[in-house]
Amino acid sequence: MEIDQWRRDYLLGGLRRSELKPTPVEQFRQWLEEAVTGGMKDPTAMCLATADATGQPSQRIVLLKGFDERGFVFYTNLESKKARDMADNPQVSLLFPWHLLERQIIVYGQVERVSREDAVAYFQSRPLDSQLAAWASRQSQPLSSREELQKQFEEEKARFNGGEVPLPDFWGGYRVVPHSVEFWQGGANRLHDRFVYHSDDSGSWSVGRLSP
To answer: Which residues make up the binding site for FMN (predicted)?
Structure first.
């Protein structure tokens, strides 16, 4: 397998400054809509990068569950590895790897917890089995077997017995408040287009082009 020879050119189109929206959230919304209409699977899947207190980075895929001018929201177990990392170091990064469209979006920012009311509203919108799974899984903790996990799930299912499943105290949401957002569009001959938005202290955005 000569993987050093695997390559392809990026020919779907370019990105010009005149096409950019005034804010990164507006630009993100346009690209997300194009990803959806373009038939991309899991366009809300994003790679969340965190670093622990020692500086060791780690990454995992999470799902975007909301966004607006305040930032990008996801939900998770509050005792997970990612949550522990963010408690030590709230600086994080998100990556949307939209290979089908030859695009990437990178968000740099700081996390904050969403309100419990927002977490409850989202949790109650999940399918019942997903709610039960949140109770059954002690995310990132050692697990002896798949059977043990299934047993925990069945125990939670019996405990709530088809009734309302409350939001666990150890489950909630985070908002990534961005200070810079990069939009990358693949280009022919590796001459990619990269634009990055930066916010200032007043919350205004400026945009500049980066060399590929």
So the answer is: 60-65, 75-76, 81-82, 104, 139-140, 184, 194
